[in-house]
Every structure is written in structure tokens, then in C-alpha cells.
Amino acid sequence: MTKLLRFLLVGSFFFTILSCSEDYQGPIPYPTLIEAANEAGLTTLVTAVRAIPGLEATLQDQQAITVFAPTNDAFANALTAFGATDLNDLVAKLGGPANLQTVLGFHVVPAVAFSRNLNEDNTFTTLAGQTLRVRSTPGSVTVTDAAGNVAQVVQADVEIENGVVHVIDRVLLPELDLPKPTLVEAATEAGLTTLLTAVTAVDGLANALLSAPAITVFAPTNEAFAAALQVFGASDLNELVVKIGGVENLEKVLGFHVVPAVAFSTDLAATNTFTTLSGQEITVERAGGTVTVTDQLGRTAQVVAADVEIANGVVHVINGVMLPDLMLPNIVEAAQAAGLSVLLDAVTAADLGGALLNADAITVFAPTNDAFVAALQAFNAADLNQLVARIGGMENLQAVLGFHVVPAVAFSTDLAATNTFTTLAGQELTVASSASGVTVTDALGNTVNVVAADVAISNGVVHVIDGVLLPELDLPNVVEAAQAANLTVLLDAVTAAGLGGTLLDQEAMTVFAPTNQAFLDLLEALNLGSLQELINTLGVDAVTKVLGFHIVPATAFSFDLAEGAQQVPTLAGENLTVTRSGNNVTVTDASGNTYNVVVADVAIENGVVHVIDGVVLPTL
């Protein structure tokens, strides 16, 4: 202001001097608007005027103007108000050069109005075609713009060659059709940082939303996302993505918050049903000034900030995250998708599918097909049926499979460094988590690796592992197996011969165990009335040899036998002829009597029992 005043004083001084000179030809010309603005240090105003082609000349050519000229500080405040970094950014936020020209024209009245000419209340039509109000009181002149903002004249009556300049302390705003923010800009302005992070995490979603012709967005607050994290037991957005089934389901959740049409709150009926970008419906209700949104699970969120207009629609800020039907796979579908066909066969064979599908919450450590192949090799089994036989039957298969299932949900992010879980088999397994991955240790101390973690399913989670976990399997001893099969005569004979300890202590054996009827048939053939008569007739040593002839000191399941006849050594010191024809097995004694295996492959803790329908006799 002092520069401008000095300019005017110096001009007046020279005007006086020259008026006394005989060479004087007329008054010294007043400065142009731009010259006066430069002299007064209004550099931002000058830059703005020159940013509009032809505007400087237009103002210069006006016959009479009054300019309300904002200071540099006024422009700096305007940058801050519009969130602009510089004049170019301000132009962009105003909607382009045309709107800047409107703003600048709003500061110019096409007439000369010195402060002394002002009434107390004045209305002027500007070059922008809009009116502004100027009030003059003793010692003060103010200007009110279209938005009701009041600027103070800080330096009045700076005369220029075609009018007058009044310096003001703020930029005046006319009515402008300002560009509406994009969804991203509106969310940023509202502080919805978690929503923005989530949208960015889905490749291409931000561009899809920005380019959509019309959208209504129900935008959850950061607090709403925080509450959703707690519900899912997730510490951050990445964990939440894992627990809802991956980025595809995150896209489904976010799409469930977007309606492909514009619906301001005033457009709503009392009850509205909208199909979202996820293809699923939400219910929006309006009661008075309250708007609520209900998701597929019946959860309701409230609109806490309505009708935020954006370039291609409207945003309503809500206080909850809406959940669609995520349509997570069940355990069977997840196993099929992962190619775990052997596991599925085993679950089907053990009739566990229903139990797993109907469980409230499960964590499944699911072996790969290669893991099952390795288990078959370890048990010398060619297929699942043989494996079932070697581990002791279907109940033990159920125990093995149940040992892979924890009746609770444990994503990898939920794990501590060391965890102990009680499985459906009733036995514990140890799960360790470290920076290098997750491992699982079974009852025998074998450790396997999780090779694919956190496959979300409808009632829990699946972790794919590279080995089959083994619980402690409860196989019967030979006495318990005979009791279970009701082979009472055999047990009596073994007891009478004192062979119980020998059988229990045998390292490995195959027992061909005669049924009770088989013993009755032998007694009848020998015209004997009881086992004791048989013992009395043959003697204990002979009965011991007979029993030993039923025992092979090695483990041979039926599928271990070669096709055809084979001689196998027995505890009696003589070979027994065993013949396999397909799935049928027979035994032939020293006298050529042949009997059938009627129940094969009863696993015991030190071998296997095959129940036969006759008593085989050695050479006596």
C-alpha cells in the first residue's frame, strides 16, 4: 500500500513541477490497472489476469472501471480454502480458465466509483454479470460477494487511467458451477482413509467407480471398518481380506456398497430395494431425517452424512460395513477346487462329510494328494482301502481324519508362536508359526508344513499341508481282537496251551483264527465232546503245535499275498499253504484240507488276524 501511495504522491509532485514548466504539454497520465497492481505488489492478481488470454487488453479497453483488487495474502487464503497448491491448481479446482475469468470479472464494475461517491449501501453489476454489494461507513468500506463473504477495503481510491482500484483483503466469489469432486476426492475430504485403502487394494476398482456413469455410494467410516475388523478378529485390512475369502470377496463387499444409479436422500421412498454392483440387494429405509441401510445378514447401518455430491453421483457416509452373501465354499468345494481328491475319497469312505459340513466352526489341515501317496508308501499300501486295513479299519480312518480337524477357526494370523489344539479325534496336535511359515506336529512327533494357508470356507478355514498327520491309533492285541470276534474256543485253547504270552510278545505275526464253529466241526469229526477232551486225546504239546500251525511269524495282510498258492512258515515248524485268488484267500493244511478266510485283515498291534472257517492241522 505504501508503494502505491508513494507512486501517487510522486505523480502529483511531478505534475506540479511540470505544470510550471514552459515545456509542459499536459497532465502526467495515470497508470494502467496492471501498472498500478505491479507497483502495489499485487503480483498474484497480475498473474491471474494474464492467465486469461485477452483479459488484460479487455480491462485496459474499458472506458470506465472500478476494480476491487485482492492482495497476494487474499489469494493465498483462497488457495488454502480450495485446497490448492498454486494458482494453476486453483484454476483446476474452480473448474478451468472460464471460471477464473468469471471470478476476476466479478471484481470489476464497469463504472468509476471512488469511495467518496459511495452511498451507505450500494449494489453494482460486475463484468461477470453478477451483482455485489458495497457498504460504506465512516472509515470503512466493505464488499460482500455472492456467497455472503465480506471483504474489507484496505486501500481505497487508487486512480488508474480508466477508473479506480480499491485493494481488498479477500478474493470475492461469484456464483460458480464448481466442478464436483470425484469419489476419491470426496472420500479423502471426509477422511475415509480405510475405504480408500480397500478400494485401492482391488485392482481396477477405483477406475471403474470413477468412470461409472452414475453411482450412489454408501461409504463406511474408518470406525465402521475398525468394528468390522474386530468382528472378524482381524488386526488390519490385509487380515480382513484373508478372513472373508480373498481380494475377490473384498471386491464383492465393496461393490455391495455401490448402487449403479444416483439416489439422493430426497429421492428415497420410505423403503427402497437396490441391486448393488455385487449383484445382491440392499434395503434402504428413510424415516424423517434418518436413513438406514440393511445388508444380507440383517445388519443395519445408519447414514451419518448424507448427500455428498460427486462428479458422477452421490455419497452417503454410513457407520457400519455392509456384508453381502460372500458365498464362501464349503469344505468339500474347497477341497475340490484345491484338487485334494484323495482327502475327499477318505472323507467319503469314513462318512465324515456331513459332520464337517454341519460343524459350527472348523480348521482343517488338509493333506495334499502327494501327502497321501507318501502315507500309502509308508504303510506299504497300494490304495486307500489297503491303508484303512493296515491302520485298523474305518474307525481308525475316522480318527486319522478327525486328527486333521480342530473344532474352532484359526487363520494363520490368529496363531501364536506355539499353539496346542484338541482335534475332533480327541487328541492334541501342535501348530507352530514363525516368519518362515506354519508347521504342524502330530502325536508321533512327525512335522509337516502348511503349503497353502488361509483358504476361507463357509464354516471356517482350510490350511493345505504336505503330510498326513497321525494320532495315536488304538489297535487291539490278538486277545482283544479274538474277544471282539467272539472266538471264545480259540481263546480257551490258547489259554490251555499257555500260548497267550507268546502271541502277545510276538514282534510280528499273522494269525489264521478258527471260528467257534470250526472247532465244533473238528470235535465232531474226532468224535470228541469238548475242547478238554481234545486236549486229553492229543496232549498239550500236540494242541500247542496245532495252534502254532495257525500262526505265521510275519505280517501278511490279504493284499500282501501273491496271486496263487504259496508256502508260508508257521510257529509249528511246518509250512502252511495259503492261496489267494483275487480277493479270496484259502488255507490248506498238511492233510490237504482247505478252508476259507471268512474275515480278512483284522489289524492288531503286532500284526493281522484272518478268521477262517476250519481248524488247520499239521503233521501229528
Tell me the layout of helices and strands.
Elements: H1 2-20, H2 33-39, H3 43-51, H4 55-61, E1 65-70, H5 72-81, H6 87-94, H7 97-105, E2 108-109, E3 121-125, E4 131-137, E5 140-144, E6 150-160, E7 163-168, H8 183-189, H9 193-201, H10 205-211, E8 215-220, H11 222-231, H12 237-243, H13 247-255, E9 258-259, E10 271-275, E11 281-287, E12 290-294, E13 300-310, E14 313-318, H14 331-337, H15 341-349, H16 353-358, E15 362-367, H17 369-378, H18 384-391, H19 394-402, E16 405-406, E17 418-422, E18 428-434, E19 437-441, E20 447-457, E21 460-465, H20 478-484, H21 488-497, H22 500-505, E22 509-514, H23 516-525, H24 531-538, H25 540-548, E23 551-552, E24 564-569, E25 575-581, E26 584-588, E27 594-604, E28 607-612
Parallel strand pairs: 1-7, 8-14, 15-21, 22-28
Antiparallel strand pairs: 1-2, 3-4, 4-5, 5-6, 6-7, 8-9, 10-11, 11-12, 12-13, 13-14, 15-16, 17-18, 18-19, 19-20, 20-21, 22-23, 24-25, 25-26, 26-27, 27-28
